[in-house]
Design a protein that fits this description.
Layout lengths: L4 H4 L9 H14 L2 E2 L4 H6 L4 E2 L2 E6 L6 H14 L3 E6 L6 H10 L4 H6 L1 E5 L3 H10 L1 H6 L2 E7 L3 H7 L6 H22 L2 E6 L1 E3 L9 E3 L2 H4 L5 E6 L6 E7 L6 E8 L2 E4 L3
Parallel strand pairs: 3-7, 3-10, 4-5, 4-6, 6-7
Antiparallel strand pairs: 1-2, 8-9, 10-11, 11-12, 12-13
Helix pairs in contact: 4-5, 7-10
């Protein structure tokens, strides 16, 4: 019979002192970056804003503020001294909207634009190629934020195209999500993607909309923000899924100055 010591022998390299553990926690805190939305209430839902090493999915119907949020985050990134890559799959990036938001903040519009690398994408294959090709750009230019508006636009279109098989569309979409996840983790990025929605036919669910391709999205994304704007003057941002934070819901307004706190 073997002695117990043969099974309990521990390599010295596996033992960490309390100082070593404390050092690791402090180092992680120093590398953690937060990006404000410009709205205190919105930031409160997210903790301190969007955090690095995390992928966020923002979904909701048209005219709820998804693209508005993307434009506003370009301004906030500049204010925070952070560079950003903006991948546009819907042809909705508008320099004139950046100008309007910059003027509202009394910031030089031209300087904000220099801080944004915009890439127009025309297919899911092109999106996958772009994600496979941007790693060195991110490193060289010290980019900290990756925005995609929207992540599932072409997946939705391919589903309804008879020239695309379901397996082919699924395979490309999963490769995109896998690459997005590896870039976010390896490069400590704040990654924010918007998503188009489809009806949720489960009448028992509180939220009657869901992101297209959600059965694949939720394998890679843990932080879900749902936007609804059914009233004339205000909407709701709802943190419906998070690894870090409790479910939360607050009011917001869409104005010429962007997403703002709703004050009763």
């Amino acid at each position: 019979m073997r002695e117990l010591s043969q099974f309990t022998k521990i390599n010295k390299n596996q033992i960490f002192s309390s100082d070593k553990i404390k050092e690791g926690i402090q180092k992680e805190a120093l590398t953690k970056i937060h990006l404000s939305t410009g709205s205190k209430n919105f930031d409160n839902v997210l903790g301190k804003g969007f955090r690095s090493n995390t992928i966020y999915l923002v979904f909701g119907s048209n005219r709820t503020g998804k693209t508005q949020l993307c434009h506003q985050l370009c301004i906030q990134a500049y204010i925070s001294g952070l560079s950003i890559i903006y991948i546009d799959t819907e042809n909705t990036f508008r320099p004139e909207r950046i100008r309007q938001l910059a003027n509202a903040q009394k910031i030089k519009f031209e300087e904000v634009l220099k801080n944004i690398l915009v890439s127009k994408i025309m297919s899911n294959n092109a999106l996958l190629l772009k994600l496979n090709d941007i790693k060195e750009t991110i490193k060289k230019q010290k980019i900290k934020i990756l925005l995609i508006d929207s992540i599932n636009n072409y997946y939705r279109l391919e589903q309804g195209d008879p020239n695309f098989s379901f397996d082919k569309a699924k395979s490309t979409f999963l490769k995109i999500l896998d690459k997005l996840n590896s870039l976010t983790r390896e490069l400590n990025l704040i990654t924010i993607v918007t998503a188009q929605i489809s009806p949720n036919f489960n009448s028992n669910d509180i939220i009657q909309e869901k992101p297209v391709g959600n059965q694949f999205l939720n394998q890679y994304i843990s932080e879900y923000l749902y936007l609804s704007y059914k009233e004339k003057d205000f909407g709701f941002v709802h943190l419906v899924n998070s690894l870090y934070l409790p479910e939360k819901k607050i009011l917001y307004r869409l104005t010429n100055k962007g997403i703002e706190d709703y004050k009763i």
